[in-house]
Amino acid sequence: MTDFAVPFFFARPRADPPWPGVVVVHEGNGMSPQLLRVCERLAARGYASLAPDLFARSGGTEAADFATLIGALKTDEVQRDLAEAVERLHGFGATKIGITGFCLGGTITYRAACSTLDLACAAPFYGGHIAHELGQPRCPILAFFGGRDEYVPAADIEAVEAHHPGAVVVYPDAGHGFMRDRSASYDEAAATDAWSRLLSFFDQHLH
Q1: Each residue of 147-157: b (16+ CB within 10 Å) or e?
Q2: Which of 28, 176, 179, 183 has the most CB atoms in a 10 Å sphere around its CB?
Q3: Report field, pTM of the whole predicted structure over 0.85
């Protein structure tokens, strides 16, 4: 365990364990209703899902503006908090564990895939810093981007594609946050296809 007990949201399948597990990493807006719905949707498909509040050390999502909260994150503490999330999932009865995340969480998901965490697969969504931290993941990855992302330049997406051929999905007409349902950034066509691909990816690597 870490030196700090990170609060989390947990959604479990109806069936009794064991089941596969997924760590879900929040965006820069923190523990949002959209994030919790992702956990619940995954649980409905048989994946125990745990979303740690990585802003908790700074007082939580409402404690400050997102730039301040993101700036306060420390890589080693985030790594420990993710390790705790994996450990908790195993404790709840999860077997193989994957990770996914959005925006800030997408970058953190990619870093996790390149780390020593016990992960079977990783699916980052529109992680803005991935192109600047390209490494060698220790598990299979599937990365998602929007072709019209106003925060991730096309050249960065191309760099990720070149480094990870066959492991990147780009939706040409989608912008940043295309998975964020009930928001102006939501792109139904891209989100529907990405969700299907995500489930297939998890089915392949977590069962």
Answers
A1: eebeebeeebb
A2: 179
A3: yes
